[in-house]
Structure formats: C-alpha cells, structure tokens
C-alpha cells in the first residue's frame, strides 16, 4: 500500500469512527473467507459494517474520536464492526461468535465508554431501536383505547337501561 492510499484509508476510518455510535473489536484468526463473507452479509442486513484494517493505521484513525478507547485492543488479526445503531453491531458480532468458536470478541466502545466482551454481549441482548419504538407506540395506544372504551361504556349502559324500560313498558 503506498503512502497516499494509507493516508486516504486513515481519513476514511477516522470519519467512520466519528460517525459510528458503537465499535466492536474481535479476533478473526482461523476463519475462512466464506465465514467472513457471511459475517459481512449479516452485518449489512442489520445496518452495521465490517472492516479489516491494519492495526497501526486503525490506531492512527482512532486519534481524536470517541472510540479511541479501543486502541489497546488492536493487536493481532482484528476485525472492526461498527454501526450508527448502538445495538446492531454488538448483536451481529455476538450471534456470529456463538456460531463460530474461532471468532473472539475482544471488546468495544459505545461513545466514549469502553466495553469489555461481557458489555458487548449485554448490548446485544437489548431490543433494537425499531423494537423499542414499536413497544412505546403499543404502550401509548393501549391507554387511548381503554379511555375510549371507558368513555363509551356509560353511554352504552344508559342506552341498554332505556331499552329495558322501553321493552318493559310495551309488555
């Protein structure tokens, strides 16, 4: 890689680290190309991205970003998984690590907060942003329907009482 390409890669990675809400670092030694392609496909479907970069260049790109706390983890064959959604990247990495023993999660960063492997797995168990939004909408709508039922119930009862008296009067 020539000097200009390295400089461009560092600038690109720096922008990625600034834009991402979460970065996860893992070792991928021993994985086949097909397994790495599977990881990339799963990440893309979840809204995350996977990048393999030279550790030295990644450390340079991390300077001045919130994710700089992951720099000590960049040793050996590492892969960076990142996303704007704080749940997407950890979920993809955790699911992939369960299926592949050779894929080892080292840690990560969410904003300026450093995450150990357990922290990454804890993030992965949280529901996604879309799931949370759906739950909130459901919670907001449920009381509204109950209020509508309560408001309509007295009118319905009154109508049934009037109907009963009307039926009694006819008989």
UniProtKB/TrEMBL annotation:
<comment type="similarity">
    <text>Belongs to the universal ribosomal protein uL10 family.</text>
</comment>
<keyword id="KW-0687">Ribonucleoprotein</keyword>
<dbReference type="GO" id="GO:0005840">
    <property type="term" value="C:ribosome"/>
</dbReference>
<dbReference type="InterPro" id="IPR022973">
    <property type="entry name" value="Ribosomal_uL10_bac"/>
</dbReference>
<protein>
    <recommendedName>
        <fullName>Large ribosomal subunit protein uL10</fullName>
    </recommendedName>
</protein>
<keyword id="KW-0699">rRNA-binding</keyword>
<dbReference type="InterPro" id="IPR002363">
    <property type="entry name" value="Ribosomal_uL10_CS_bac"/>
</dbReference>
<dbReference type="InterPro" id="IPR001790">
    <property type="entry name" value="Ribosomal_uL10"/>
</dbReference>
<dbReference type="InterPro" id="IPR043141">
    <property type="entry name" value="Ribosomal_uL10-like_sf"/>
</dbReference>
<comment type="subunit">
    <text>Part of the ribosomal stalk of the 50S ribosomal subunit. The N-terminus interacts with L11 and the large rRNA to form the base of the stalk. The C-terminus forms an elongated spine to which L12 dimers bind in a sequential fashion forming a multimeric L10(L12)X complex.</text>
</comment>
<comment type="function">
    <text>Forms part of the ribosomal stalk, playing a central role in the interaction of the ribosome with GTP-bound translation factors.</text>
</comment>
<keyword id="KW-0689">Ribosomal protein</keyword>
<dbReference type="InterPro" id="IPR047865">
    <property type="entry name" value="Ribosomal_uL10_bac_type"/>
</dbReference>
<keyword id="KW-0694">RNA-binding</keyword>
<dbReference type="Pfam" id="PF00466">
    <property type="entry name" value="Ribosomal_L10"/>
</dbReference>
């Amino acid at each position: 890689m020539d000097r200009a390409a390295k400089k461009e890669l560092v600038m690109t990675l720096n922008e990625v680290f600034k834009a991402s809400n979460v970065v996860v670092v893992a070792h991928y030694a021993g994985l086949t190309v097909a397994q790495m392609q599977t990881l990339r496909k799963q990440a893309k479907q979840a809204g995350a991205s996977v990048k393999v970069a030279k550790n030295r260049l990644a450390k340079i790109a991390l300077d001045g970003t919130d994710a700089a706390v992951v720099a000590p983890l960049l040793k050996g064959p590492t892969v960076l998984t990142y996303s704007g959604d704080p749940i997407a990247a950890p979920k993809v990495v955790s699911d992939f690590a369960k299926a592949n023993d050779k894929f080892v999660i080292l840690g990560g960063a969410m904003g300026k907060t450093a995450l150990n492997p357990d922290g990454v797995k804890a993030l992965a168990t949280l529901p996604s942003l879309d799931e949370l939004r759906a739950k909130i909408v459901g919670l907001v709508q449920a009381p509204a329907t109950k209020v509508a039922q309560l408001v309509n119930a007295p009118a319905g009862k009154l109508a049934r009482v009037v109907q009963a008296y009307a039926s009694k009067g006819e008989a």
